[in-house]
Automatic annotation (TrEMBL):
Species whose genome carries this gene: Synechococcus elongatus (strain ATCC 33912 / PCC 7942 / FACHB-805)
Cellular compartment(s): Cell membrane
Membrane-crossing segments per the record: 43-60, 72-91, 97-114, 126-151, 157-177, 217-239
Similarity comment: Belongs to the 4-toluene sulfonate uptake permease (TSUP) (TC 2.A.102) family.
Name the UniProt record assigns to this protein: Probable membrane transporter protein
Length: 243
């Protein structure tokens, strides 16, 4: 594959992911990372994370007036704790089996969300959600659905802006970690810049889809993508366990 064709395909993938993330609020890594990896492993994780950094900031900045600040500190503290716990356990746990557990927990959370029961929004629940997202995100690569499920009852603009802020801060920590182990240097920065036009294209065309979701479909989108994430996670774990 020629470098130009690879760049065009990578830009198209990122544009699609940006469209879905900017419109629904959910992280597009579930779609973008596997597809970019098929093109070249050089696109992940650093360039992909850096490109998402731009998108997350745009999502936050556009809705900065409606960010849900309630218990945000507890959420961020929980995220940091979850990432730290996962880092300490990374070499000790059977990650393939954990994928089944985490996927099952996400399915359970979705099913609970479909019932009339509404979980209380407290400092404790925010902290526990942050820990869960940090833990699952670090160990299994799918932490965004947990955050989105916590904020699923918020209005579309507030959902997108709050998740954008959380994604932005999480991505900064991730890039710092990648840089510390030599996985995000000048080469990765250059590739990140190549993905920015795709990010901007997806963000630019997202308002139409976001407007449709804001008519009452935001929660449906959150639950559907969370369920898809858990299905992919469970499927990946089963394949690894069988191999």
């Amino acid at each position: 594959m020629s470098p130009l064709l690879e760049l065009l395909l990578a830009s198209g993938i990122v544009a699609l992911g940006s469209l879905l993330q900017a419109a629904s609020g959910l992280g597009a890594g579930l779609i973008v990372v596997p597809l970019l990896s098929m093109l070249s492993v050089d696109w992940v994780p650093g360039p992909c994370v850096a490109a998402s950094l731009l998108l997350s900031w745009l999502m936050f900045w556009q809705g900065r007036q409606v960010v849900v600040h309630r218990h945000l500190g507890a959420m961020l503290g929980g995220l940091a704790a979850g990432i730290a716990i996962a880092a300490s356990l990374l070499r000790q746990l059977p990650l393939d089996a954990l994928g089944l557990v985490f996927g099952g927990l996400i399915v359970l959370a979705v099913l609970i969300s479909l019932t009339p029961v509404r979980l209380p929004i407290t400092r404790l629940s925010a902290g526990l959600t942050g820990i869960s997202a940090g833990l699952i995100g670090t160990l299994a690569g799918i932490g965004a659905p947990i955050l989105a499920l916590f904020y699923q009852h918020e209005r579309g603009p507030a959902l997108r802006a709050t998740l954008g802020l959380l994604y932005f801060l999480s991505s900064l920590v991730m890039l710092a970690a990648l840089h510390s182990v030599g996985r995000f240097g000048s080469l990765e920065v250059g590739r990140s810049l190549q993905l920015f036009p795709g990010v901007m294209l997806g963000y630019w065309v997202s308002p139409r889809l976001a407007h449709w979701l804001d008519r009452g479909y935001s929660q449906i989108a959150v639950l559907a993508i969370a369920l898809l994430s858990s299905t992919v996670l469970i499927g990946q774990s089963l394949l690894k366990l069988q191999s």
